[in-house]
Amino acid sequence: MIILIKVYSVSGEWKEICTEFQNMLFVRALRPDRISFCVRKFIVNNLGYLFVEPPVLDIKAVLEDSTQQTPLIFVLSPGDDPTNAVIQLAHSCEMLANLHIISLGQGQAPIATQ
Hints:
The chain is mainly α. It has six helices and no strands.
């Protein structure tokens, strides 16, 4: 028996027999590198697109929720860069002179501790 797998689904006669969840199980067993696409498709089809799209960051609302004791910490993934949004917010609040942007890459610890 041969099962062909496309990007994130089974094909041939198995496509007619399997439910979408069973399709995910096949993909998980045979192509674990493609399971994220399959899960995303399953969530969109069963719950809606709202559950796979990250919310848009309203940095002004986040700033209003923060205090001096609860600083803003951005945990970034590749491709994310909130620098422009932070600069625009500082400019709109007339706090641009007080904004100090420090990259915490290699060798930047002494600068950050100042």
